[in-house]
Amino acid sequence: MRVGIVGLLHESNTFHSEPTTRGHFTSDVLVAGDALRERFSGAHHEIGGFLAGCERAGIEAVPIFAARAVPFGPITDDTFEGLWADLADQWNRAGKLDGVLAAAHGAAVSGGQRDADGEWLSRLRALAGPMPIVATLDAHANLSARMVRAVDALIAYRTNPHLDQRERGEEAAAMIARTLRGEVKPVMDGSFPPMVINIERQCTSDPHWRFMHEAVEDFRRREGVLSASLLLGFPYADVREMGASIVVVTDNDARAAREAAATLGRALWRERSSFLGQGLAMEGAIEEAARSPGPVGLLDMGDNIGGGAPGDATLLIEQLRKGSQRAFACICDPIAARRAADAGTGASLELAIGGRSDPSIGSPMVDRFRVVRLDDGRFIEREVRHGGASRFDQGLTALLEDRSGHSIVVTSLRVPPFSLGQLTSCGVDPSRFHALVIKGVHAPIAAYRETCRTFLRVDTPGITSASMDRFVFRRRRAPLFPFEPDAVWNDAAD
Ligand SMILES: [Zn+2]
Fold it and tell me: What does DSSP assign to residue 393?
């Protein structure tokens, strides 16, 4: 039995003014054939799980094509079509296949395709014909009916931070192996309660999620249920499907899949008011950080790089630098990194750092900084971290210090703060600071909980702001809770 492995992963923030182009994929993941195996076989990523799961099941994994880019604006049409053409080309060279394992994100948008995942999975179905396709999704997918129709089974990460990506890939491989042996026939259905889970409430280990874990687990244990997933949704995509959803896979029982998905959808809907953000304002957060046990991780929700934000906001670090407790921030600014490198290690120079992309998230931080160290920005993460990446490249990187002892790491590439390697590879000991600005919401916790004694989620402005009323949506569903607080869901009637 030969199973093709494909992946096309992107989380597209439609509020970003700049598009994602092929270069963004090239600088993250764009691999085919053996290079795919080499890139992912040891990774804590679902594609690593596909490879390991196929081996365990005694089926041949045929690596075909995988592309991934760091979350950013919508993918250009040329890029999307080019990636698809590459995938199809590699498919045609792969020889006869019996099934497919596909890794999708579920929140990809291209210029012409608001549901880019529904589109490429449908094209994959057209290539594959009737052979089984089992696909994985990020928990932040904005699930569409089209995705559900395109493949035989969808399996989403269960955790946020996403620490079970490899396990979900292994689960998908085991499911396709059982399908190919004729032991099961996956069928599935989805449920789409018209509700948004605020980003701030999406940490799946928080107590308000316990009821849902138990409800989903109860279905997973039932006879004939092959998989059940909760999708948290990605709020920063102005698409019809934006919001939370459920997908359930059963063994050849479409009605049971539909009923299980509906029951879980209703359970989520009933608790909709527990998923509203709290909105800790910046001023309050700075005061609370000062009196909290450190190190304090201040999560800059509006400049969440893993949600597509630029990573050059200065609002929080500028406030912290006014205080006497030592503060740290990592800011993406290739111009400042270059200027620091030109000045050289040990030099002291007047610099403008960050604040270049969006005036609402801060202006450039202008001051005199000492260049403590320069690096190539490459490092390896060996622990299980959100995103499943092991190799990081933040480009030319400078560690700078101001006269008060506050430190800034300036990177040339946008790298989400999923690994403490971002600091330690530059010689920074995070425990030396009272406050660390972290440009994310939940994903960084997997790494930063080793260091931070306190976390504060700060409602900062930006294209990943937790305050959803800062955004103008034109394509979302209506009514949609909490935009329409009195929204009624017809399917909610038991
Ligand atoms: Zn995600």
Answer: E
